Amino acid sequence: MAHVAAGPPGPADVLPLLRPGDILTHCASGVAATGAGPVVREAYARGVLLDVGHGAGGFAFDVLERQLAAGLVPHTVSTDLHARSRYGPVFDLPTTMAKLRAAGMPLADVVAAATATPAAALRLPGGVGTLAVGAPADIAVFAVREEPFAVVDAHGQVREAPERLVNTATYVAGRPLPPALPEPPPPWVPLTAAQRAALDRRDGALRALLGQPLVGPEELAEQFPRTFPRPERG
After folding, report:
1. From 17, 26, 80, 90, which residue has the greatest number of CB atoms within 10 Å?
2. Mean pLDDT of 56-68
3. Do residues 68 and 104 touch, judged by C-beta distance below 8 A?
């Protein structure tokens, strides 16, 4: 897997060295001069795989749209998720998948690019990334909500995704994985005032939720029935 950034070296120096099955990540970067030029087309034609690898600066809508128009469809979608990207602009994998939908890729192709295709690219055995019988039961379940919403790339370009993917359950080796909030951001991560305010609101809402009883008195059952009469209330 080759990571190409501002360089040098640039894509024209690196891509000719890649062989079929090798991977170019940050393929739609607005920082590196990837785009849809001859060197990228030649690499694609001989079997070099394109990976989105969004990250904090490796994804631009206009670059991806030029690639799609040229028939250079990314093989895999990934987040390059780290401390400087998970609070925005990346957020998570479903949001990154929605960005490919906003650029025009069909939903089935986007799902394959996040599951079966990367498993095949990494030559993972045993049906990883599929729902085949006998495959590892690592399963993410999503609700597909037909509600367009705005998504943004690493450079502030906004597009509208046609639907939202909302995780409803995740299983690892067949066992449910409980939802959990991520650790708070390290103090060195450059966040805007709006990002920090949103994190404070989320923490406050969670504390308020967990500070309330789960259900009301009328929704409880007597687990240990009394063996003697209740005293009369005077």
Report:
1. 26
2. 94
3. yes
Banded model confidence at residue 234, pLDDT cuts 50, 70, 90: low
Tokens of residue 178, six digits: 């409980």
The domains found in the chain, sorted by start residue, are: 2-133+144-165 (3.20.20.140)
Q: Which two tokens stand for residue 222?
A: 């007597």
CA dist 65 and 59 (Å) reads 11
Confidence of residue 7 (pLDDT cuts 50, 70, 90): confident
User: What is the band of 35 on the pLDDT scale with cuts at 50, 70, 90?
Assistant: confident
CA proximity to 119, closest of 59, 82, 77: 77
